[in-house]
Amino acid sequence: MDPLNKNPAPLPPDEDLTEVRKPASLLIAQFFLFPLIIIGICVGLFLFFGYLTYDQRTPPQYLSDIRSGSGTQRWQAAFELSNLVQSNPREIGTPEFVESLMAAYKDSPDEDIRVRGYLALILGKLQAHAAVPLLLDGLLREEKLKTKQWEGTGVFQLIPPPLSEISEDLIRSQISVLWALVSIGDNAAVPGVLEQVKNQDPSIRLTATYVAGVLGDQRAVEPLRPLLNDTREDVRWSTAVALAQLGNSEGAEVLTKLLDRSYVDSLQDFALKQKTELRANACRALGKLRYQPALEKIRTVSESDLETDVRKACLEALKNF
User: What is the CATH number of the domain that holds 306?
Assistant: First the structure.
């Protein structure tokens, strides 16, 4: 007997010691249902307050921000408007709204490079043929800004950013204009586009050659020919495809080389998807040309290549021979 407990309480018999268990439904509620209810309440509150603060601005309101908002607000509004136009171009692209967009593009200050890039893309999505001369002027405007001397009282700000950063934004803006021009599809843009195949920046040359091919104007053949010897391989490939689209076979050997999987696989800095698209486009271009020296190579690729998209492109090409 425990000396510290002189009158211990008698223990119940073993058969009276039973475990008290909670009902299974209570356990489920405690560990699953209640947390789910709490999560549901939190999500509901989030959606409710999100709805209260949701910005339901109209295209004219976005355009107002582009023209008179702060620096960050302007390009963000241009970005949002670009997404909005993408989803509903027909209702948004009224003549009056297009005219307002063109005015905003023309009047944008020099530092609003990104804004102009988005506005160009919007005009392209709206297929605004009236904007073609303005966009061509925009190409030249950005080119002049790239060569401008940045001084302490320069056009951008009192302490201008590094020229390399400015040039990247200007290059992206020019590429946006070129994409807009190909979206519009107006051959009035051809002379201005062909000026850009001589641009010092290879990414602009690359885009300009593609645009020239898609526009399909025979005036592009002569200016494109020298680019088959460009210092950049991707520019040479794009030029060969563009010439093929124009019915010119001078780049056919370049395209035939792209059918060689081992050669394309050896290329650095290209993702698998890009390599597949490159070879598929080469097949299509050679098929359009009905280039006989590549016929057997196309047939072999169509039968045994590992990439389904490449095989399909070559099968389509064979139908032209």
Answer: 1.25.10
Cβ pair 314, 300 in contact under 8 A: no
Highest mean pLDDT among 73-87, 154-168, 188-202: 188-202
Domain hosting residue 255, numbered range = 251-321
pTM exceeds 0.90 for this model: no
Q: Residue 178 falls within a domain, yes or no?
A: no
Q: Are 115 and 80 a contacting pair, CB within 8 Å?
A: no
Buried b / exposed e over 231-259, threshold 16 CB at 10 Å, is: eeebbbbbbbbbbbbbebbebbebbbbbb
57 or 105, which is more confident?
A: 105
From CA 77, how far away is CA 96, in angstroms rounded?
19
Q: Is residue 44 part of a domain?
A: no
What are the residue ranges of helices labelled H in the chain? 24-28, 34-53, 59-68, 71-87, 89-92, 95-107, 113-125, 132-147, 163-184, 190-196, 202-215, 221-224, 233-245, 252-257, 261-265, 272-289, 295-304, 308-318
In a domain, 64, yes or no: no
Number of domains in the chain: 1
Please report, for residues 27, 91, 125, 128, 211, the alpha-carbon distance to residue 185 in angstroms, rounded to integers and kept in the order given. 66, 20, 11, 10, 9
Amino acid letter for position 275: K
Q: What is the pLDDT of residues 10-44, one digit of tens each?
A: 544 545 445 445 555 555 545 555 555 666 666 56
Q: How many CB atoms lie within 10 A of CB 109?
A: 12
